Amino acid sequence: MSPRRPAQREALTRDRILAAAVELADENGLDAISMRRIGDAIGYEAMSLYRHVRDKDDLLDGMVETIVARFPARDDTLDWRESLRTLVRGAHDELLAHPWVAALATSRPAVGPARLRFVDGVLAALLAGGCSPQLAHDAMHAVEVHVFAFTLQELRLNAGASAHGYQLDAVRGDSALYPHLAAMLATATHDHVAEFEFVLELLIVGIDRAIATSAAG
């Protein structure tokens, strides 16, 4: 009886490395990311990974691209407003599902094909709505700020947070010093979902008005 051959390892690829890195970051945060730990997760020596990722920077950029590639593509059958809502909500949902991505994406100088595809989809929706190239440029930046900056704040508040997301004991203790803030805190509630949608609708109304103004001018 011939000896049984050991099971062959699954081939090492860039996609496998990035998938393992994403899983590790999802479970333990970015501080857990190292070539050794990724190699251990997929059964390879750390040095083997360098045949597929140049260095730590390349790894981090690839991790961002892996998640941003899951952002929705533009649906050109939709009205531009609904198309924009779908793009923005889908991006926000992915960033919330992977809490390390938003900060990393906004701190990296590299912009990969997946991020460019998302930006191109946003621009396509804006141009379809009647934006000039300049207005589309300006509106696109406002949209990206909403997607990434709002998500960063939401994640930070979720990580720490009091009922209103901030440490506001001083306000409650001295309402005379901050009367309007104290009055708001007495009755208002903090709802990330509602606030995200509120700002998204403000953006769409503002862009719509800018389109009408430029057409009238």
Structural summary, described in words:
It is a single chain. The protein is an all-alpha fold and 217 residues long. It folds into 2 domains: 1-53, Homeodomain-like (Arc Repressor Mutant, subunit A), CATH 1.10.10; 69-216, Tetracycline Repressor, domain 2, CATH 1.10.357. Helices cover 68% and strands 0% of the residues. It contains 11 helices and no strands. Mean pLDDT is 89; it is low at 1-7.
Summarize the structure.
With 217 residues, this protein is mostly helical. It has helices at 14-28, 35-42, 46-49, 56-68, 80-97, 101-107, 113-128, 133-160, 169-173, 179-187, 192-216. The protein folds into 2 domains: 1-53, Arc Repressor Mutant, subunit A, CATH 1.10.10.60; 69-216, Orthogonal Bundle (Tetracycline Repressor, domain 2), CATH 1.10.357.
Reconstruct the topology from this structure.
Elements: H1 14-28, H2 35-42, H3 46-49, H4 56-68, H5 80-97, H6 101-107, H7 113-128, H8 133-160, H9 169-173, H10 179-187, H11 192-216
Percent of residues in helices comes to: 55-70%
Listing every helix as H and every strand as E from the N terminus to the C terminus, the arrangement reads HHHHHHHHHHH
Oligomer: single chain
Number of strands: 0
The CATH homologous superfamily name of the largest domain equals Tetracycline Repressor, domain 2
Largest sheet: none
CATH topology of the largest domain: Tetracycline Repressor, domain 2
Report low-confidence residues grouped into runs of 5 or more. 1-7
Rounded mean pLDDT score: 89
Number of helices: 11
Q: At CATH's second level, what is the architecture of the largest domain?
A: Orthogonal Bundle
Total domains, how many? 2
Give the C-alpha Rg. Answer: 23 Å
* CATH uppermost class of the largest domain: Mainly Alpha
Structural class, from secondary structure content?
mainly alpha
General form: flat
